[in-house]
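Troubleshooting: if your tokenizer reports a length mismatch, compare your output against this known-good record of 382 residues.
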Amino acid sequence: MTGPAKGDGAGAVSAGAGAVTKVGIVGTGVISGTYLDHLDKLPGVEVVAVADLDRSRAEAIATEHDGIRALTPEELYAADNVEIVINLTIPAAHAAVHQAALAAGKHVYGEKPLAMDRAEAEPLLKYAAANDLRIGCAPDTVLGTGTQTARAAIDRGDIGTPHAATAFMVTPGHELWHPAPEFYYRPGGGPVLDMGPYYVTSLVTLLGPVVRVTARAGRAKQQRTVHTGPRAGTVFDVEVPTHVTGVLEHESGALTTVLMSFDVWAGRLPRIEVHGTDGSLSVPDPNAFDGTVEIVTPERREWTEVPVAGGYAGAGRGVGVADLARAVRNGEPHRADGALAYHVLDVLESFVDSAIQDQPLDVASTVARPAAVPLGASPETA
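Known-good structure output:
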């Protein structure tokens, strides 16, 4: 089946040049600081409220930022001047926060993944479509100059017809730096659902939707230990696979070899490479907005930098919110949308299921590649 439909936003907020969409943030953990820093620099959006189950954390942010109020989540959903709710809660709370915001008539944009699984995600998109609301979802890193320059090179035919790709994400685990890493090792976490969205979103942007997956999985440790912060030394159980590898089959016929692991102490693997009939392309880290794209062709058999050819320059986390806000104001599609996030979640969940079931699996959903971001574009106008 195709991914759930999305609303067209026709009943959205005021349009016009210089219009500003007011947003509120639910969840004031580690990532919220990065969002606040970048949203403050973006045109067309203004953070007016923050909320957290721990009210003191929201109040601390409100104290540091003029014009931002500290609210309870329920107060934020009900606030008349909040038009988009940004959901930065832990993955287990994504669906519930999305649903509460949608029920209050707000558009929503959330951190990845869209929900814990397809069963949680599909009703959200159906509800949004039925009520003329939008859902957006990270990662929005694909809107930066790194992935967009690689896409422009592919779309120009610089490497001919893409037929293969590789995607590698290896790390020894988040417990080495995160003071409360347990949720990375519970259902909804693991390397596939934690970091996989960056890679698969980039791969779908570059090569199109995935139709079939084959995977194998392992778990090097049954328990892990917190290394930093006040809970250092705490031992916790690992509940999900931490080393998953396999193949994605794209609708285009291209095959992507994937490795996602929390069990590798160090590696010299490329992040993403795309190989075509007339060349190969090195794509920068999909967890970053920019980075150097390089190409090898039969005529030039050494890596050569590709000039920046697309993407929001200087982008940071939250550019997807600005892209959504502009699209809502103008009644246009937005790029980091719910249909894309649902397909990515479907691919990732199917990937893990394939490993558990020890068999290839078809991916039920599909999605169109989102519109490219033109060179020199602004999220307020593109």
